Input
Amino acid sequence: MNIIITGGAGFIGSNFVFHMLQTHPEYRIVCLDKLTYAGNLSTLEPVMENGNFRFVKADICDRAAVYQLFEEEHPDMVVNFAAESHVDRSIENPGIFLETNIMGTAVLMDACRKYGITRYHQVSTDEVYGDLPLDRPDLFFTEDTPIHTSSPYSSSKAAADLLVLAYHRTYGLPVTISRCSNNYGPYHFPEKLIPLMIINALHDKPLPVYGDGLNVRDWLYVEDHCRAIDLILHKGTVGEVYNVGGHNEMKNIDIVKLICRTLGKPESLIQFVTDRKGHDRRYAIDPTKIHRELGWLPETKFADGIQKTIQWYVTHEDWWQPIVSGEYMAYYEKMYGNR
Ligand code: NAD
Ligand code: DAU
Output
């Protein structure tokens, strides 16, 4: 089995590369990644010398480069993690989100049609369903919940999902889609809530909580997401969408306070700042389908996963220090300077 994993130098993609090389040591894994600000080749260092692994720096929007890779590798499957993934950046500059998340997906699927594959898997997000009200804890996103997006990011991911389903219906491309809730764990880029708060707290810097801090996200340890995608690739039904989530809803403010407590930092570091535009209130996944049909269940409890994650950042300053001291700081200044 030869699998192209796009976006494998990012957070979830790199965890998936590690998972696949470990779980299926006989598979060939080819990582295609543009190495944007969010891609980090040092993350993949432990597998660079693995004979079953190849890294290729390329843009999924670059048709010639993608086709060339297909001619060289003849992949059986493609798993597309490559995306612009940060909601706040999409509010500042939607254009690149449309290019990568929509056009890039089309280029990959065109290559799949041209060269033939047994599966194209699209890594999507629960954000395509929009949000749920805080006062209706009985409501959850199912695979049948209508698409109803809030941000340029989620709109671009929803557009990609519709395109994937259209390629299945129109051309018979063997596709699957997973829509997962918020992931956390090692190698999470420090612009996202959990790593940003850990790293700021370690530096005794202010912890910028948007709005009232009561927004709810449904957190899943990244390895559980990787196992879900692995299962979908091997046992999922072509043409189907699978929601992935672990029924672990947390208010943002409670996560930030937990990080403060764990690191022995005062809650006085918390600063409530201007809310995100169009800020989704609550996400909550109903994972019944993937449990019933594929037997998937999350293995890591949030109480354990968050401690592991905090400890990982404490002991891996060598990974995040070059990021927070480089280009990312210009972004940080722009986003939080006058907030
Ligand atoms: P990330 O931003 O950490 O990584 C994205 C990776 O894609 C980077 O390595 C980047 O270099 C690469 N990339 C970006 N544009 C590219 C292009 N044009 N060509 C090739 N490579 C490109 O993202 P992540 O958080 O790991 O998310 C991965 C996928 O999972 C995304 O599709 C995202 O929408 C989805 N997702 C994320 C979460 C989450 O909580 N982080 C939850 C559900 C779904
Ligand atoms: O639900 C899945 C999605 O989760 C993925 O599709 C996205 O790629 C991923 O980035 C994530 O989106 P969110 O917007 O939920 O994640 P983020 O870490 O940016 O924010 C989580 C919550 O924390 C959100 O309510 C906004 C809030 N927040 C975030 C930051 C960066 C703050 O209060 N302060 C911050 O500084």
Q: What stands out?
A: The mean pLDDT is 97. The two ends are 49 Å apart (CA to CA). The first helix runs from residue 11 to 23.
